[in-house]
Amino acid sequence: MKSKKEFILLGLVIIALAAYITVRKTDRTHYELPVISPIKDNEITSLAIIKGKDVIDLKKADDKWLIQPEKFPADTGKINAMLKIIQNLTVTALVSESPSDNRYDLDPEKRISVTASKDGKPLRVFDIGKPAPSGRHTFIKLPGDTKVYHAGENFRNMFDQTKDQLRDKVILTVERNQVKQIDIKDKDNKTLLDLKQTPETPASGPEEKPDAKTPAAPAPPAKMAWKDADGNPVNESEINNLFNNLSRLQCQSFINGKTKADFTKPLYTVTLTGAKTVTLSVFDKLNKEDATYPAVSSENDYPFMLPAYMMDSMVKKKENNPNPNPGPKMQPKSNP
């Protein structure tokens, strides 16, 4: 009798284990993650980024990304960072099956909706929520799917941009070794700074007579040096300061609703001459307490705001001391 009960209990255990395994297997199938195929480089030709009522539309033209409809050049670094995420988007875990968008900032007011297309055909569509508490993932939703997933990487901030933040703010670029002259004038066309690259005077020494048996070696290229209008050498730190500001000059922001033609009579004009000539015109502050100057550049189509400290570092010392590197003073001759 006891043996019969043991067989019955054993049978019940087997049935329970079989049921558990079946349910677990079904559960695994239920939680199978979607597989997202990568997108090849250069396939994406347009991007739509929507957050609430704000819509940013970007299109690629001649390998450049432009913000529509104004066709403002976009910041290449920021666009490339977004494209990398879009092309290689991966789902790493299922977070929630039940509708709970508010909890993950995936509700219509907070989510960021991204659509990447090729010639008008969507290649990738997804919604971005807030970063996961781990700081290494982002909550996302996929089209036609109510579930919330973890996506690899923390990338919401890359897409949480305004039009102005996405604009390319580089408004002037020059190659230092191609610039031969730097000129700064004030509003009265008075020269505050006039620097030129000229050959250094070679050190004098005993003249060597050429050897008739040995062909003369070609003369080395003349070493160039920066000098002011009086021919005095310019401190290297001053040149470094100028090129640190001007080699790849970025504005703080653009001036909306204005064109370059709206700005006349510059306060300062900076001209760099060499392989090409570029100019930077800086105008009076809109308000005395502002920390920016309105400005225009020959290398950009739009007026912009330039941080005051940049212009002050280049100009203020010159206004107070227009000849910062005076030559040696002549001593009066003594009577014999």
Question: Which helices and strands, and how do they pair?
Answer:
Layout: H1 2-30, E1 46-51, E2 54-61, E3 64-68, E4 72-73, H2 76-87, E5 91-96, E6 112-118, E7 121-131, E8 137-141, E9 148-152, H3 156-159, H4 163-166, E10 170-173, E11 179-186, E12 191-199, E13 224-227, H5 236-246, E14 248-250, E15 253-254, E16 268-274, E17 278-282, E18 292-297, E19 304-307, H6 308-320
Antiparallel strand pairs: 1-2, 1-6, 2-3, 3-4, 5-9, 6-7, 7-8, 8-9, 10-14, 11-12, 11-16, 12-13, 15-19, 16-17, 17-18, 18-19
Structural notes for this entry:
The chain has helices spanning 2-30, 76-87, 156-159, 163-166, 236-246, 308-320; strands at residues 46-51, 54-61, 64-68, 72-73, 91-96, 112-118, 121-131, 137-141, 148-152, 170-173, 179-186, 191-199, 224-227, 248-250, 253-254, 268-274, 278-282, 292-297, 304-307. By secondary structure, the chain is of the alpha+beta class. The strands form 3 sheets. The protein has a 9-stranded antiparallel beta sheet, covered by helices on one side. A hairpin with a 3-residue loop joins strand 3 and strand 4. The radius of gyration is 34 Å and the shape is elongated. The model is unreliable at 23-29 and 322-336 (pLDDT under 50).
